[in-house]
Amino acid sequence: MSIEQTYQKEFEARLEKLDAQIVQMRAQADQANADVKIKYHEQLRDLSTQKEALTQRVEAFKSSSEAAWENVTDGFEAAYTELQTAFEKAVAQFRQ
User: Fold this and answer.
1) Which alpha helices (DSSP H) does the chain contain, by range?
2) Residue 11: which of 68, 87, 79, 85 has the closest Cα?
3) Of 10, 64, 73, 81, which is the most exposed, with the fewest CB atoms less than 10 Å away?
């Protein structure tokens, strides 16, 4: 397996993990009271938008040239870290 394929599989696994976390957060939102539910759904909308951008990066990675894949992976890493941090902040906010 090439290094590009390895990265692609890792990125896809990370996206699947984020999908699962978003599904879990949606379930928590559905059980919350009205005020909290609104905040949950706002956060979920933002997280879903960021996740979509990350998915597009993975798609770009799939079609990038070998010379460009390092830039794509760096961009993915930065975007993933930002999204994971945003998700953790959102979860922490609703635990309080």
Assistant:
1) 3-31, 34-63, 69-95
2) 79
3) 81
User: At 40, phi and psi to the nearest 5?
Assistant: -55, -50
Give residue 41's pLDDT. Answer: 82
- Residue pair 29/44 in contact by the 8 Å Cβ criterion: yes
Report the interhelical angle of 69-95 vs 34-63 (nearest 10°). 170
Backbone angles phi, psi at 7, to 5 degrees: -60, -45
Give the mean pLDDT of 25-34: 82
> What is the token pair recorded at 4?
């590009």
Instruction: Output the pTM of the full model.
Output: 0.68
CB atoms near residue 90 (< 10 Å): 20
pLDDT digits (tens, 9 = 90+) for 40-75: 888 888 888 888 888 887 787 777 776 677 777 777
* Cα torsion angle, 57, 59, 60, 62, sign: positive
